[in-house]
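Summary for the lay section of the report: proteins are chains of building blocks that fold into shapes. Here we show the chain for Na-K-Cl cotransporter, putative and then a coded description of the shape we predicted for it.
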Amino acid sequence: MSFKIKKILKFLNPSQFNTSTSPPKKYNTFEGVFKPTLLTILGAIMYLRIGWVVGNAGLWGGLTVVLLSVSITVATGLSIASIATNTRMGDGGPYAMISKSLGLEIGGSVGVPLFVSQALAAAMYIFGFREGWLFLFPEHPPLLIDFTVFLVIFIIAYISASFAFRVQYLVLILIILSLFSIFSSSLTWESNQTWQDWGDFSNISFWGVFAVFFPATTGIMSGVNMSGELENSRQNIPIGTLSAIALSTIIYVILCWWVARAAPPQELINNYTILVEKSRWQFLVLMGLLAATFSASLSSLVGAPRILTALAKDGVIPWGNGLAKLSKNGEPRRALLVSAGIVLLALLLRDLNAIAPLITLFFLLTYATINLVVLVESSLGLMNFRPTFKVPIIVPLYGILGCILAMLVIRPFLSLVAIAIVLAIYLRLVSLPKEKRPADVRSGIFTAIAQWSAMKVIQLDLTNVRAWKPTFLVPIEDGSQLLGEFRLLLDLSQPEGFLQLLGIVTNNQGETLSLQLRELASSFRHHKLLTTISVMKVELESEGMIAALQALQSAFFRPNILFLRFPDQASDWDQLLPVFNEAKLLDVGVMLLGLHPSAGLGRMEVINLWIRPQLEDLPMIERLEKGNIDLAILMALRLSKAWKAQLNIISVIPKEEDRKEADNYIKSLRDLCRIPATANNLIIVGEFPNCISQTPQGDMDFIGLQSTPDFHFVNQIITMTGSSCLFMSDSGSESALA
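The coded shape description reads as follows.
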């Protein structure tokens, strides 16, 4: 290989010449999401069928077809944005979205047909390119055109996605020039053509026109497929996808108006190249058509291997270990070879008309499932579903119904075939051996069902509940203790939490305490909070707590938070120390309430969350996980929402030089934990007790509990803050990052 050739290849793909494995390139919003999504939407249907749509449906009918089609993809795009802002997206795009929520079985049953459809779509776009090329050079052999285009696309995709995205810049320029050629035509401002408002639909129905046009709007996954290689998927996917949908919609609407003024309806119906013939520079529009189909095929061939790689990593498909391996520069080349094989086989078939609608139907099934994810997760109200981009529940509901409608309109019988294929794959996956798999929201669904059922039948045989939610064990010696804490416990538990009231009797007042607890439990249930009660007679209060913690480990709702009260005397504190130790051994979090004797719950308007910055030289995720702050963050977020209170995040650092690192830590924590933007940050230099006077007066302070809690320290903090405090210790099962 000559020096010049090596230099050129090194420029196109420099990582190929590195001897060590390098991390894959990360793409921004424009390059990784917006551009491929826009170029896939603006495809052959825009150039060859938009006139036919308006010719059959009229201007207003055509606009109705366009906007109805777009409304389904807008709903799906909004659902995609909501999911993307709720989690750190991994590889696999739509498959990752579905499998993380509804499980690998459902994700795989949709993901496998989606991968095949993505690969077959590449072949379809190559056929579209061939038709445009033959318009220019009718003497060229069709088979040679197909294989030449396939080879070029394969080489580009094989080099790297980065190179493919560079090529798409040229494609984008050609499409822009083609649109300029169309809109600069004289008929844009000089046209005597009277358009038809509504078509007579003599040859085809409104829904038939809709079925032809709708595939033009199904390119919104091109950017989502790159989820594992984006700089910040939580930002890149929502902004890139929604902006591409918005811009493409504007272009389609303007083109409907343009073609309505370009020719009479009959000519629009019969002449598929009306945009070419009526444009200012016909050659530019033809180049735009070729570029659009070329780019769509390239995007499909770049996206399909990434879905296959994610399926392989999760063991959804056979030979997953081999297909999941990446090249040195992070490219899924083994999966690309499989994808290219499917494309090549489809090209040899020479005609995909029979299964082309099936491809669209698989895309629609994927869209419907993504909408279902948002509908299910938002309906359950789980703590792990806290998207920073929230959508009303009507959006995913409309998306599901719209996808079902589109499927029935396009091909009713093939829709049943598509559903049967997905169902067959699902049944195959659920029959496979159950290995340890990533957690998903299905456990949250089962938990929600169990909670509803437990209001009637307390004991249910359900295990492996994953979705974290507060399950309090609240020891009570006197029912009057709980009256002052009723509102606090209610706000910390609602809407999906669970209270286990544990009456501890050390005298002969057991019956009285039972009556009090039943009354209190009834009050909690009145507020739709699942509550159970039990009473234990013991010699020492600490013995009852330890026995309850041990006995409830196999309970239907295992307690994950032990709610304790700060005692008035140091002698009582000594009895609590064994309880702290037992809770730690059993992985139960501890919440110690220090109720200020004068302030009580105060105004319930200001919450101070004290966070100790982790300044070690570790990756940010590891630093956040070391902080023992997950329970404090989750409970502070919950209480601030219930109280509609101002949340202050307060950190203390020993020296001024640590301020920048501490500020970066807090910013990362806020982003990863989706802490509302209205929360305030405050970093103070000094010793913790001495800094309390410099903070805003709170109504409740959330503070980490020492590994060996000290009575005098806790008492000092309650006094110095002048407010009630909740001292927290994590159980290890909760995560503010989830």
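Put simply, here is one thing we learned. Residues 456-588 form a domain with the Rossmann fold fold (CATH 3.40.50).
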